[in-house]
Design goal:
The chain is α+β, with helices and mostly antiparallel strands and about 325 residues long. The radius of gyration is 27 Å and the shape is elongated. Strands 10-11-7-12-15 form a five-stranded mixed sheet. A four-stranded mixed sheet has the order 1-13-14-4. It has one domain.
């Protein structure tokens, strides 16, 4: 068929309005399960310090009648520390960009502030759960706090072999960054159960198992999964159950453990966490400020200064060097 003679088509017409939806679609994940479940504390110096202690091992205790009592040797507390880490995102918006009519947002400054705040939150979750170590910084180097993986040094089925963490060194106040092993193996239920047992034996209550997507699916196949079937309604002796696709609750000999997938943890490590023993400390909570005016633009920074407080790493465990 031929176009009607002298008919104006959309291919040649001038002045057509654009069809641009007033919504911006972004599915980038922003969940931060570790930071959301950890306690929050205030910090007042660039090196944050706290103390831990432990009771003597339980032992038989039968004493003589009328015995002369002697004091036992004094056991001092352990003083731990970690530096605060500065993290920020910055952007600049010209005066013209802020003034023109825009689709999806009224203010480019407001939109970028919210967007970079979410990006910064993702960075924080990644650093908090990472394998990095302590760096007290200097004129030419940034301060860094050790991540969860590096703090956990007592409990785990891989400890004592390559790819483990020396833990906190009292003499230097440093936690060394984790060195990964080149040998990796699959996550099996016996290794997870062993890690839970070790943390519980030390006195922890590891109620959270935090893993990446691959090992979340692996754990879904373990025999200890408790929520493949969930009671929905109950009438007399009859009950109706719904099948749930993912494993949300793992039941061990030492209690119930919520299985939490985390997009920002390393998939090669399974973290078994007592969340009451972890806190995020803020010297400067997340805030926004404008950099000094240098031209016809608004330069903004979203910044925070924070650290990770490992109240007692013995309450948690890890299963390291996992295949992904």
């Amino acid at each position: 068929m031929a176009l009607l003679t002298n008919a104006t088509s959309t291919y040649s017409a001038i002045g057509q309005r654009e069809d641009l939806t007033d919504v911006i679609y972004d599915i980038s994940p922003t969940e931060s399960p570790f930071m959301s479940n950890a306690a929050r504390v205030n910090v007042s110096a660039k090196v944050h310090e706290w103390q831990t202690d432990a009771l003597a091992a339980a032992a038989a205790n039968a004493q003589l009648e009328g015995n002369v009592i002697s004091a036992a040797a004094f056991s001092a507390t352990v003083r731990l520390k970690a530096p605060t880490q500065i993290a920020y995102k910055a952007f600049a918006v010209t005066g013209t960009t802020e003034a023109v009519d825009k689709a999806g947002r009224a203010s480019e400054v407001s939109y970028q502030t919210a967007k970079l705040g979410r990006e910064l939150k993702r960075d924080m979750e990644k650093d908090l759960t990472s394998e990095k170590g302590t760096d007290f910084g200097g004129v030419g180097s940034a301060r860094t706090f050790p991540g969860v993986e590096s703090w956990i040094a007592t409990n785990g089925t891989e400890l004592g072999t390559a790819g483990t963490t020396p833990g906190f060194v009292t003499a230097t106040g440093v936690v060394t960054a984790l060195t990964d092993s080149s040998a990796v193996t699959a996550l099996v239920e016996s290794r997870l159960k062993a890690a839970i047992k070790e943390a519980w034996t030390e006195g922890g209550d590891p109620g959270v198992i935090m893993v990446g997507p691959t090992n979340k699916q692996t754990i879904s196949g373990f025999s200890g999964i408790g929520t493949l079937y969930q009671d929905v309604t109950r009438r007399g002796t009859e009950s109706q159950a719904a099948i749930i696709g993912g494993a949300d609750l793992y039941i061990s000999d030492f209690g119930r453990h919520v299985v939490v997938p985390n997009r920002f943890t390393r998939d090669r490590t399974c973290l078994v966490l007592d969340m009451s023993m972890w806190a995020v400390g803020f010297l400067r909570p997340m805030h926004t400020f404008e950099i000094g005016k240098r031209g016809d633009a608004e330069e903004m920074v979203v910044l925070t200064e924070y650290t990770l407080e490992s109240r007692n790493e013995k309450a948690s465990a890890k299963v390291a060097n996992l295949s992904t």
